[in-house]
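Q: Given only this backbone (272 positions), what sequence would you predict?
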Protein backbone atom coordinates (compact mmCIF):
# COMPACT_ATOMS: atom_id res chain seq x y z
CA UNK A 1 0.00 0.00 0.00
CA UNK A 2 1.08 3.54 -0.65
CA UNK A 3 0.31 6.72 1.23
CA UNK A 4 -1.35 9.68 -0.43
CA UNK A 5 0.14 13.10 0.29
CA UNK A 6 -2.33 14.73 2.68
CA UNK A 7 -3.61 18.26 2.22
CA UNK A 8 -2.79 20.78 4.90
CA UNK A 9 -4.95 20.20 7.95
CA UNK A 10 -6.05 16.75 6.82
CA UNK A 11 -5.19 13.52 8.56
CA UNK A 12 -2.96 11.27 6.47
CA UNK A 13 -4.91 8.51 4.70
CA UNK A 14 -3.60 5.34 3.15
CA UNK A 15 -4.70 4.05 -0.23
CA UNK A 16 -4.38 0.76 -2.09
CA UNK A 17 -2.48 1.51 -5.26
CA UNK A 18 -3.66 -1.62 -7.10
CA UNK A 19 -7.28 -0.56 -6.64
CA UNK A 20 -6.50 2.86 -8.06
CA UNK A 21 -4.81 1.26 -11.06
CA UNK A 22 -7.68 -1.13 -11.68
CA UNK A 23 -10.16 1.67 -11.18
CA UNK A 24 -8.64 3.49 -14.13
CA UNK A 25 -9.74 0.61 -16.36
CA UNK A 26 -13.31 0.84 -15.07
CA UNK A 27 -13.38 4.60 -15.59
CA UNK A 28 -12.15 4.23 -19.16
CA UNK A 29 -14.93 1.72 -19.89
CA UNK A 30 -17.47 4.06 -18.27
CA UNK A 31 -16.37 6.91 -20.54
CA UNK A 32 -16.67 4.89 -23.75
CA UNK A 33 -20.06 4.05 -25.24
CA UNK A 34 -18.85 0.95 -27.08
CA UNK A 35 -16.98 -2.18 -25.91
CA UNK A 36 -13.21 -1.85 -26.27
CA UNK A 37 -10.30 -4.01 -27.30
CA UNK A 38 -7.72 -4.88 -24.66
CA UNK A 39 -5.12 -2.82 -26.51
CA UNK A 40 -7.24 0.36 -26.65
CA UNK A 41 -8.54 -0.07 -23.11
CA UNK A 42 -5.06 -0.51 -21.69
CA UNK A 43 -3.70 2.42 -23.67
CA UNK A 44 -6.35 4.82 -22.43
CA UNK A 45 -5.75 3.65 -18.85
CA UNK A 46 -2.01 4.21 -19.40
CA UNK A 47 -1.20 0.54 -18.83
CA UNK A 48 0.38 -2.21 -20.91
CA UNK A 49 -2.04 -4.93 -22.09
CA UNK A 50 -0.15 -7.53 -20.03
CA UNK A 51 -0.60 -5.45 -16.88
CA UNK A 52 -4.23 -4.62 -17.57
CA UNK A 53 -5.36 -8.19 -18.31
CA UNK A 54 -5.19 -9.61 -14.73
CA UNK A 55 -7.34 -6.73 -13.49
CA UNK A 56 -9.92 -7.49 -16.18
CA UNK A 57 -9.99 -11.16 -15.18
CA UNK A 58 -10.70 -10.22 -11.57
CA UNK A 59 -13.32 -7.64 -12.52
CA UNK A 60 -15.02 -10.23 -14.74
CA UNK A 61 -15.26 -12.63 -11.79
CA UNK A 62 -17.01 -9.88 -9.84
CA UNK A 63 -19.36 -9.09 -12.74
CA UNK A 64 -18.01 -5.57 -13.06
CA UNK A 65 -16.88 -6.17 -16.66
CA UNK A 66 -17.68 -8.74 -19.30
CA UNK A 67 -15.89 -9.90 -22.43
CA UNK A 68 -17.93 -10.31 -25.58
CA UNK A 69 -17.22 -13.78 -26.95
CA UNK A 70 -17.61 -12.89 -30.64
CA UNK A 71 -15.24 -9.92 -30.67
CA UNK A 72 -13.17 -10.35 -27.54
CA UNK A 73 -13.90 -6.75 -26.60
CA UNK A 74 -14.58 -5.63 -23.03
CA UNK A 75 -17.52 -3.72 -21.64
CA UNK A 76 -19.07 -3.00 -18.26
CA UNK A 77 -20.96 -5.88 -16.67
CA UNK A 78 -24.19 -6.33 -14.73
CA UNK A 79 -22.57 -5.60 -11.36
CA UNK A 80 -21.30 -2.25 -12.67
CA UNK A 81 -24.83 -1.42 -13.79
CA UNK A 82 -26.16 -2.26 -10.33
CA UNK A 83 -23.55 -0.04 -8.69
CA UNK A 84 -24.43 2.80 -11.05
CA UNK A 85 -28.16 2.49 -10.49
CA UNK A 86 -27.71 2.37 -6.73
CA UNK A 87 -25.60 5.52 -6.89
CA UNK A 88 -28.23 7.33 -8.97
CA UNK A 89 -31.01 6.34 -6.57
CA UNK A 90 -29.01 7.71 -3.66
CA UNK A 91 -28.34 11.06 -5.34
CA UNK A 92 -30.16 14.04 -3.85
CA UNK A 93 -30.02 17.06 -6.19
CA UNK A 94 -30.26 19.48 -3.26
CA UNK A 95 -27.34 17.85 -1.43
CA UNK A 96 -25.31 17.80 -4.63
CA UNK A 97 -26.03 21.43 -5.54
CA UNK A 98 -25.84 23.06 -2.10
CA UNK A 99 -22.05 23.03 -1.57
CA UNK A 100 -21.51 24.14 -5.18
CA UNK A 101 -23.98 26.99 -4.70
CA UNK A 102 -22.32 28.03 -1.44
CA UNK A 103 -18.91 28.06 -3.11
CA UNK A 104 -20.31 30.13 -5.99
CA UNK A 105 -21.76 32.70 -3.58
CA UNK A 106 -18.53 32.88 -1.57
CA UNK A 107 -16.29 33.32 -4.61
CA UNK A 108 -18.44 35.89 -6.44
CA UNK A 109 -19.95 37.77 -3.52
CA UNK A 110 -23.36 37.58 -5.21
CA UNK A 111 -26.57 35.97 -3.99
CA UNK A 112 -27.40 32.45 -5.13
CA UNK A 113 -30.81 30.79 -5.15
CA UNK A 114 -31.64 27.10 -5.58
CA UNK A 115 -35.02 26.14 -7.01
CA UNK A 116 -37.09 23.16 -8.10
CA UNK A 117 -40.15 22.73 -10.29
CA UNK A 118 -43.09 22.61 -7.90
CA UNK A 119 -46.86 22.28 -8.22
CA UNK A 120 -47.19 25.93 -9.25
CA UNK A 121 -43.97 26.32 -11.21
CA UNK A 122 -40.35 27.24 -10.34
CA UNK A 123 -40.09 27.42 -6.55
CA UNK A 124 -37.19 28.73 -4.47
CA UNK A 125 -35.95 26.23 -1.87
CA UNK A 126 -32.75 27.90 -0.66
CA UNK A 127 -31.44 31.45 -0.73
CA UNK A 128 -27.78 32.24 -0.04
CA UNK A 129 -27.41 35.93 0.66
CA UNK A 130 -25.00 38.24 -1.16
CA UNK A 131 -21.90 39.64 0.51
CA UNK A 132 -23.42 43.10 0.13
CA UNK A 133 -27.10 43.67 0.99
CA UNK A 134 -29.38 43.01 -2.00
CA UNK A 135 -33.02 44.02 -1.79
CA UNK A 136 -34.89 41.10 -3.34
CA UNK A 137 -38.09 39.38 -2.26
CA UNK A 138 -36.90 35.87 -3.07
CA UNK A 139 -37.04 33.41 -0.18
CA UNK A 140 -37.74 29.73 0.33
CA UNK A 141 -41.22 29.00 -0.98
CA UNK A 142 -41.36 31.87 -3.47
CA UNK A 143 -42.87 30.82 -6.81
CA UNK A 144 -41.10 32.55 -9.67
CA UNK A 145 -42.71 33.94 -12.80
CA UNK A 146 -41.98 31.68 -15.77
CA UNK A 147 -41.49 34.40 -18.36
CA UNK A 148 -40.65 37.31 -16.06
CA UNK A 149 -37.61 35.90 -14.26
CA UNK A 150 -34.35 34.23 -15.24
CA UNK A 151 -35.21 31.30 -12.96
CA UNK A 152 -38.54 30.73 -14.67
CA UNK A 153 -37.06 31.07 -18.14
CA UNK A 154 -34.33 28.54 -17.36
CA UNK A 155 -36.97 25.98 -16.38
CA UNK A 156 -39.06 26.83 -19.44
CA UNK A 157 -36.29 25.48 -21.67
CA UNK A 158 -36.12 22.05 -19.99
CA UNK A 159 -39.68 21.36 -18.85
CA UNK A 160 -42.12 19.88 -21.43
CA UNK A 161 -44.07 22.62 -23.17
CA UNK A 162 -47.49 21.35 -22.06
CA UNK A 163 -46.47 21.61 -18.41
CA UNK A 164 -45.09 25.10 -18.97
CA UNK A 165 -48.30 26.24 -20.66
CA UNK A 166 -50.39 24.76 -17.88
CA UNK A 167 -48.35 26.59 -15.25
CA UNK A 168 -48.69 29.79 -17.27
CA UNK A 169 -52.42 29.23 -17.52
CA UNK A 170 -52.71 28.93 -13.78
CA UNK A 171 -50.89 32.23 -13.42
CA UNK A 172 -52.51 34.14 -16.29
CA UNK A 173 -56.13 33.18 -15.82
CA UNK A 174 -58.58 31.24 -18.01
CA UNK A 175 -56.53 28.43 -19.64
CA UNK A 176 -59.21 27.94 -22.30
CA UNK A 177 -58.93 31.47 -23.65
CA UNK A 178 -55.91 30.77 -25.88
CA UNK A 179 -57.06 33.36 -28.44
CA UNK A 180 -56.52 36.25 -26.06
CA UNK A 181 -53.61 38.66 -26.81
CA UNK A 182 -51.86 37.79 -23.57
CA UNK A 183 -51.71 34.12 -24.58
CA UNK A 184 -50.49 34.91 -28.09
CA UNK A 185 -47.76 37.17 -26.74
CA UNK A 186 -46.79 34.73 -24.01
CA UNK A 187 -46.37 31.80 -26.37
CA UNK A 188 -44.21 33.88 -28.70
CA UNK A 189 -42.09 35.07 -25.79
CA UNK A 190 -41.83 31.49 -24.56
CA UNK A 191 -40.55 30.34 -27.95
CA UNK A 192 -37.90 33.07 -27.99
CA UNK A 193 -36.91 32.33 -24.38
CA UNK A 194 -36.45 28.62 -25.04
CA UNK A 195 -34.31 29.34 -28.10
CA UNK A 196 -32.02 31.69 -26.16
CA UNK A 197 -31.61 29.37 -23.17
CA UNK A 198 -30.85 26.40 -25.40
CA UNK A 199 -28.26 28.45 -27.26
CA UNK A 200 -26.40 29.68 -24.18
CA UNK A 201 -27.29 27.08 -21.54
CA UNK A 202 -28.54 29.91 -19.32
CA UNK A 203 -31.30 32.46 -18.95
CA UNK A 204 -30.50 36.02 -18.00
CA UNK A 205 -32.38 38.94 -16.52
CA UNK A 206 -31.31 42.56 -16.79
CA UNK A 207 -33.06 44.83 -14.31
CA UNK A 208 -36.21 42.71 -14.24
CA UNK A 209 -38.35 41.92 -12.44
CA UNK A 210 -36.36 43.96 -9.91
CA UNK A 211 -34.75 47.21 -11.05
CA UNK A 212 -30.95 47.30 -10.73
CA UNK A 213 -30.73 43.54 -10.19
CA UNK A 214 -29.27 41.27 -12.87
CA UNK A 215 -29.22 37.48 -12.90
CA UNK A 216 -28.09 34.35 -14.69
CA UNK A 217 -29.97 31.11 -14.16
CA UNK A 218 -29.61 27.53 -15.34
CA UNK A 219 -31.20 24.17 -14.63
CA UNK A 220 -29.08 21.10 -13.93
CA UNK A 221 -30.29 17.87 -15.51
CA UNK A 222 -30.64 14.39 -14.04
CA UNK A 223 -29.10 11.29 -15.60
CA UNK A 224 -32.31 10.96 -17.65
CA UNK A 225 -32.08 14.52 -18.94
CA UNK A 226 -34.92 15.81 -16.78
CA UNK A 227 -34.92 19.08 -14.83
CA UNK A 228 -33.39 18.33 -11.44
CA UNK A 229 -32.57 21.65 -9.77
CA UNK A 230 -32.23 25.27 -10.79
CA UNK A 231 -29.47 27.62 -9.71
CA UNK A 232 -29.61 31.40 -10.05
CA UNK A 233 -26.84 33.92 -9.50
CA UNK A 234 -28.01 37.48 -8.94
CA UNK A 235 -26.47 40.79 -7.99
CA UNK A 236 -26.64 44.56 -8.34
CA UNK A 237 -26.35 45.68 -11.95
CA UNK A 238 -23.39 47.95 -11.12
CA UNK A 239 -21.27 44.88 -10.38
CA UNK A 240 -23.00 42.22 -12.46
CA UNK A 241 -22.29 42.31 -16.23
CA UNK A 242 -24.67 40.23 -18.31
CA UNK A 243 -22.64 39.68 -21.49
CA UNK A 244 -22.79 36.03 -22.57
CA UNK A 245 -18.99 35.89 -22.60
CA UNK A 246 -18.58 37.59 -19.22
CA UNK A 247 -16.76 35.75 -16.40
CA UNK A 248 -20.03 35.37 -14.48
CA UNK A 249 -21.82 33.80 -17.45
CA UNK A 250 -18.97 31.40 -18.10
CA UNK A 251 -18.80 30.51 -14.40
CA UNK A 252 -22.52 29.80 -14.31
CA UNK A 253 -22.32 27.60 -17.40
CA UNK A 254 -19.57 25.61 -15.70
CA UNK A 255 -21.54 25.34 -12.46
CA UNK A 256 -24.67 24.04 -14.19
CA UNK A 257 -22.57 21.53 -16.12
CA UNK A 258 -20.83 20.41 -12.92
CA UNK A 259 -24.09 19.80 -11.05
CA UNK A 260 -25.57 17.98 -14.05
CA UNK A 261 -22.46 15.83 -14.31
CA UNK A 262 -22.61 14.89 -10.65
CA UNK A 263 -26.25 13.92 -11.13
CA UNK A 264 -25.29 11.56 -13.94
CA UNK A 265 -26.13 13.65 -17.03
CA UNK A 266 -23.66 12.90 -19.81
CA UNK A 267 -25.05 15.09 -22.59
CA UNK A 268 -24.41 18.72 -23.42
CA UNK A 269 -25.72 21.25 -20.92
CA UNK A 270 -27.03 23.30 -23.86
CA UNK A 271 -28.69 20.41 -25.70
CA UNK A 272 -31.81 20.40 -23.52
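A: Predicted residues:
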Amino acid sequence: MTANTPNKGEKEQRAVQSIEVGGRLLLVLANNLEPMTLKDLAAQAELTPSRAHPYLVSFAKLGLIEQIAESGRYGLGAAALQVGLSCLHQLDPVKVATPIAEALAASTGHAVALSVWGNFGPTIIRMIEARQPLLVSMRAGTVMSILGTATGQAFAAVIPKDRILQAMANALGDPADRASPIWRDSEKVLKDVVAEVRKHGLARAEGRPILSVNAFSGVALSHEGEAAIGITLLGHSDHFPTDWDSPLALRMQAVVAEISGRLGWQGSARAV
